[in-house]
Amino acid sequence: MSGPEKMSGVLSPVVTPFNADLSADAGRLVRQCRWLLSQNCGLAIFGTNSEANSLSAEEKIDLLDALVDAGLDTGRMMPGTGACAIPDTVRLTSHAVKLGCGGVLMLPPFYYKGVSDEGLFRGYSEVIQRVGDSNLKVYLYHFPQVSQVPISLDLIERLLKEYPDTVVGIKDSSGDWSNMEAMLKRFPGFAMFPGNETVLLKSMQNGGAGCISATANINPGAIAALAANWQSPDAQAMQDKMNDLRQMMQQFPMIPALKAAIAHYSGDTDWEYVRPPLVELTLEQKTEMLAELDKRGFAMPGLAEAQAV
Amino acid sequence: MSGPEKMSGVLSPVVTPFNADLSADAGRLVRQCRWLLSQNCGLAIFGTNSEANSLSAEEKIDLLDALVDAGLDTGRMMPGTGACAIPDTVRLTSHAVKLGCGGVLMLPPFYYKGVSDEGLFRGYSEVIQRVGDSNLKVYLYHFPQVSQVPISLDLIERLLKEYPDTVVGIKDSSGDWSNMEAMLKRFPGFAMFPGNETVLLKSMQNGGAGCISATANINPGAIAALAANWQSPDAQAMQDKMNDLRQMMQQFPMIPALKAAIAHYSGDTDWEYVRPPLVELTLEQKTEMLAELDKRGFAMPGLAEAQAV
């Protein structure tokens, strides 16, 4: 296989910091990514939790350039590049490959619903052929609850057959373990990242690649430690502890909740800004969430220092 | 009220012609739009049937410029400008307003599902304020089956209260007459366009503004005639005849079916190209559809001449 190695371990779909005028803040993003790397956590920037589809292609290119200019390791970057329009997907993907990103996470075109596997195959093919670079490593993005456009096992099989050196993995955010298990069995060597750390141990035991999870924005160290030590005797205890945190966080709207936690632990309330159609947590929600975190002795070690300018 | 008059009558969500390499073909689009105007049909370019979300913002701007450069009446244009990312929506909307478009048709941001009315209100507000032009006339776009992000009556009420001179109408593609009827009753003067001509007569009888319908791509003259003559004695017969055509067309995937019909009646097979994730009709589907059209003595008067270069 040519090009970058397959990616593995834990990646964070890094939340995107905004200013009061809702412009993206590259400086804070760079610092956040540096902190995540220090926690042994890779950078799945421009994911669902990054509000990536609320950013224009130009904004994403500028932010990616800022991360690279800051000297962060592009091998640990898996930017989301899948858009509704093929020209946008090609533009962002080509840029990511040119910069040396370890991979890209690619949503299918998600405006039209009920589309055929043939249409999705053609969409991915068109992008891969236009980018035309052996360094391109595509991780498919299966998130039927949000994209409403599922990626079937038959589609994966067809893509793997046609592009074995390019289509190398998937993020499965369906929450459906039976789908993840089926992929692990049917496609040995295909890098399967669950979109949720509650199945991390089970996934590693069955040949999974790691995970790409919302909560890795706030709990990266613990999740990365389990991915690295899943064969250790206390792996189940580690899993149980992070499940408790995840389940608590899931009681709140996830993206604003992650941002409110980062705002609190970094001491920078600007982190709370989200772009419409999302809204920030209510004061009541925020108070409740922070109390729950406090009750668990939760901390984000080194974050305040990393974010201090 | 300042700025353009409210739009009315029948508009076509104009299908976008592609070349074999899937690039957009501005020349054919200009000629198609000219033909539609000759049939008394306005131009809701960049709608769902236009594969607008399969076009980049740059492509849409270039196509709109081509229509304006060709001297077509911008007052009859209602380009779709709603994207997932506010910067894209603002960019396209500002451009349309600057060119003098009679209105814009604005999808809500459609990636995130289950979002609140508050979040959608903020999204529309942000766009309206950033565009900041009294000539902006927004037609909301309610299409829950595809966007999966419905526009509630309460959201409309709030937008009308805050932006009475800007938010002036809606396209309702839900197919749910009770929703359309509720809007006509609750918001007098609000321009309600059903997304389907099968309720055109009923809609006109209840104060509707016209319709914006897929099939207006191939049957514009008949639909426009009913909108103009809904009080005539043979209105119901006109309605029945177009319903029959619509119901037949709905047996096929609509966008490729419209394009196959235009290809056939213009004599230019390049019209059949669609962008992934859509696929063209199978030969069997095309043959069946053309036989059904033929059985009805269907024609697209003047199309071949209009498209001849």
Order of helices and strands of chain A: EHEHHEHEHHEHEHEHHHHH
Total number of helical segments of chain A? 13
Average pLDDT of chain A? 97
Secondary structure: number of strands of chain A:
7
Q: What radius of gyration of chain A results from the CA coordinates?
A: 18 Å
Assigned CATH class of chain A? Alpha Beta
**Most extensive interface: pair and counts?**
A-B, 40 and 40 residues
Termini distance of chain A? 42 Å
State the fourth-level CATH superfamily of chain A: Aldolase class I
Q: Provide the CATH topology of chain A.
A: TIM Barrel
- Mind telling me which CATH architecture of chain A this is? Alpha-Beta Barrel
**Main sheet of chain A?**
4 strands, parallel
Question: How is the quaternary structure best described?
Answer: homodimer
Proportion of strand residues of chain A: 5-15%
Instruction: Give the overall form of chain A.
Output: globular
Tell me the domain tally of chain A.
1
Q: Can you tell me about this structure?
A:
The structure is a homodimer of 309-residue chains. Chain A has 309 residues and is an alpha/beta fold. Chain A has one domain (9-233): Aldolase class I (TIM Barrel). The first copy, chain A, is built from 13 helices and seven strands. The first copy, chain A, has helices at residues 26-38, 57-69, 86-98, 117-131, 144-147, 153-162, 177-186, 200-205, 220-228, 235-249, 254-266, 283-295, 303-307, and strands at residues 9-12, 42-43, 104-106, 138-142, 167-172, 191-194, 210-212. In chain A, the strands form two sheets. Chain A has a four-stranded parallel β-sheet. In chain A, strands 2-1-7 form a three-stranded parallel β-sheet. In chain A, helix 1 (26-38) packs across helix 2 and helix 2 (57-69) runs parallel beside helix 3 (86-98). The longest helix of chain A is centred in the middle third of the chain and has 15 residues, at 117-131. Chain A is globular. The mean pLDDT of chain A is 97. The interface between A and B is large, with 40 and 40 residues.
